[in-house]
Amino acid sequence: MSQSEATGETKEFLFKILVVGDIGTGKTSIIKRYVHNIFSYFYRSTIGVDFALKVLQWEQNIVVRVQLWDIAGQERFGNMTRVYYKDAVGAMVVFDVTRTSTFEAVSKWKSDIDSKVRLPGDAMIPVVLLANKCDLSKDGLVRNAAQMDKYCEEKGFIGWFETSAKENVNIDKACRALVAKILENDVSNNKRDAKATVVVDVKESPAESSGCC
């Protein structure tokens, strides 16, 4: 039993999650399916960044608000991505299983995230890889699950999922896996912070002290 369950208190979390990938990979469709459970063939290409919010009753006494940032595919190496990535605690990189070129861009997206946003202690944020449009014919490495597992391990992804926004395949599962990892990191960071102590020499005058509270 968690402390929140024992005390009857509700703990609330707000997590910023990036959704990135080349243009046309289905990022907006995935978000619309996850947040509103809808699908359309006629979404316009995202310009800059868009936002969506999903509220999860994670456990009886835990509420998680997931803020999804839909980053436009053409923004990968723009100056604005550093601003968009700020304060993110997790990410999804999306590619289209029917277009090998979008998979080839995955490592560049992952490197861009790793270079621009970090967790406390300089740890990389958890990232899942979504092989989207799995209801269509697959092309390239995604046809070999073992090779995909190896690829994700080498690139530092926490895992990968075949997804389909159209058929609603694995989207909830992938997002839940990412949120679970973010919560795990949050607990670990809180434990580390609780153990941290600041030693202040009380003999120093306030003007001389370099310690901070």
Automatic annotation (TrEMBL):
Instruction: Please give the Gene Ontology molecular function terms for this protein.
Output: GTP binding; GTPase activity
Signal peptide start and end residues: none
> Which PROSITE patterns does the UniProt record give?
RAB, RAS
Single Gene Ontology BP annotation: phagosome-lysosome fusion
Cell location:
Membrane
Q: Locate the transmembrane regions by residue number.
A: none
Question: SMART domains attached here?
Answer: RAB, RAN, RAS, RHO
Protein's UniProt keywords contain DNA repair = no
| InterPro entries for this protein | P-loop_NTPase, Rab29/Rab38/Rab32, Small_GTP-bd, Small_GTPase
Please report the record's description of how this protein sits within the membrane: Lipid-anchor
Keyword Membrane set for record: yes
User: Keywords on this record?
Assistant: GTP-binding, Lipoprotein, Membrane, Nucleotide-binding, Prenylation
Please give the GO cellular component terms listed in this UniProt entry. late endosome; lysosome; membrane; phagocytic vesicle; trans-Golgi network
What PANTHER family does the database record attribute to this sequence? RAB FAMILY, RAS-RELATED PROTEIN RAB
Biological role stated in the UniProt entry:
The small GTPases Rab are key regulators in vesicle trafficking.
Q: Which family does it belong to?
A: Belongs to the small GTPase superfamily. Rab family.
Q: From the Swiss-Prot or TrEMBL record, give the protein name.
A: Ras-related protein Rab
Record the organism.
Fonticula alba
